[in-house]
Amino acid sequence: MRAVLLMICVVFLASCANQQCRDSVEPETVVLRVERLEQELFQSESSKEVEEFLKDHSNFSELFLHADQYPADSILANRMFGLIQNPSIDTLYREAIRAFKDFDEVVRTLEDGLGRLKVYYSQAPSPTVQTCVTGLYNDLFISNEHIMIGMDFFIGPDATYKPQQIPYYILQRYTTDHLAASILQFISSQYIATSRGDAMLAEMIDYGKSYYLLSKILPCTPGHVLIGYTEEEWTDIYENDEIIWANFVQNEWLFETDHTMKQRFLGERPNVYEIGDKCPGRIGRWVGWEIVNAYAEQTGASVQQIMKETDFNKIFTESKYKPSGS
Q1: What is the dihedral angle through the alpha carbons of 156, 158, 161, 162, rounded to the nearest 10 degrees?
Q2: DSSP state, residue 17
């Protein structure tokens, strides 16, 4: 499985004890190794100590800090030591520590999610989790072996220093509440077979399969968190699902193959203005999720059967999907 540094599109969750959970399987026991590297790094008193830190955590240095791009380890060490001496970083560090005060809860959610994923796919990984504060250098690195988290990206909307390259409508998902689901969505994506075809409907259903699997391994996570919508957006789309669906059908968008057109409904945008000023971006992904949910209900297909199905027309036809208001 390839590793990736990603912009988050989705999501963590509240405790199952505090809300209604969807039906799911009992998770296998997973215990993740967690390394809080920020504590060790910020105790360094010289660039030499930072260099030793980088050597001791070579995977983190190479994969998250791109150490191989520096001609000498000492150069990166000097840069990182300069960072932790910067007066501004103290504010960033303290706010990150405060935001991650309940990180054990995130880890438990990851463990439960991976435990359920192992029920469906026994080869599912158990990566090492590492956290650090790096001056807003990177947000996430995820592979089967590693989950690396740049804590300072996930302080939330009240952060003194915010990552400038991320639009606000995406940045509002950069909180610890969204971590577990966004990580698990990426890890679980390797078990989803890609639909055959270039139509937008094929991609919609592939996204739908992704959210369907995520909902099964995180049964207590609210749906709006899984997909990265606000509660208000989530309520609005269900109140207007007939209008949303009518637009897709009447404008013949389902079988659109033009990449630019598809991105209008599947890609990151603050709103899908073609449907309405309040219609949130990525609405095609939500419709795909609804279709896959309907397919599962109509056919009784197992999670594994749905994930390996590559005939998007079959899923669409047999779903007999209709908006909830129909």
Answers
A1: 50
A2: G
How many CB atoms neighbour CB 87 within 10 A?
6
Span 87-99, pLDDT tens digits:
889 999 999 999 9
Mean pLDDT, rounded, of the chain:
93
CA distance 53 to 36: 13
For residue 122, which amino acid is it? S
Residue 36 has pLDDT above 70, yes or no: yes
Task: Name the pTM for this structure.
Answer: 0.91
User: If residue 116 lies in a helix (H) or strand (E), which one and from where to where?
Assistant: helix 103-120
- Write down the pLDDT at residue 88: 86
**Closest listed residue to residue 50, CA positions, set 63, 30, 65, 69:** 65
Coil, strand, or helix at residue 65? coil
Q: Please give the backbone phi and psi of residue 34, each rounded to the nearest 5 degrees, phi first.
A: -120, 130
Nearest C-alpha neighbor of 323 from the set 245, 257, 218: 245
Distance, CA of 220 to CA of 112 (rounded, Å) = 11
Q: Return the amino acid letter for 170.
A: I
* pLDDT tens figures, 207-223: 999 999 999 999 999 99
Give strand pairing partners of 307: none
Q: For residues 189 and 219, give the distance between their C-alpha atoms in angstroms, rounded to a whole number.
A: 17
Residue 165 has what pLDDT?
86
